[in-house]
Design a protein that fits this description.
single chain; mainly alpha; hpI Integrase, Chain A; 5 strands
Amino acid sequence: MKSKESQREEIKAFSRDQLSTFFDTARTRAVLHFALFFTLARTGLRLGEARALQWRDVDLERRELRVQRTVADDSNKTLGTPKSGHARTVDLSRQAADLLRRLDITRKAAALRDGSGEPSS
């Protein structure tokens, strides 16, 4: 079994070029997940925190996310508190806020088009 220090050494962030290539690919091949990937990269959220976000946690005018919960990686998708044990507010870049604004408009338009009314949080 590897030590925690050894495991940390293996974790490497994308370079700027790698991230750009990843985003270019995700825009065309993973359209439904692109906003998630972009938000993760621009905010530093943990995957479980991002998966637990609800639209009511997003303040596009103030360009902030409120991280209040996380989704466990278990089969039940258990909700819990963030790793720190308490909620926190995370700033959104202008690009991330614009992307989420467009996503919100798109999902609301789809809900109206499908006749399902306002989409849920």
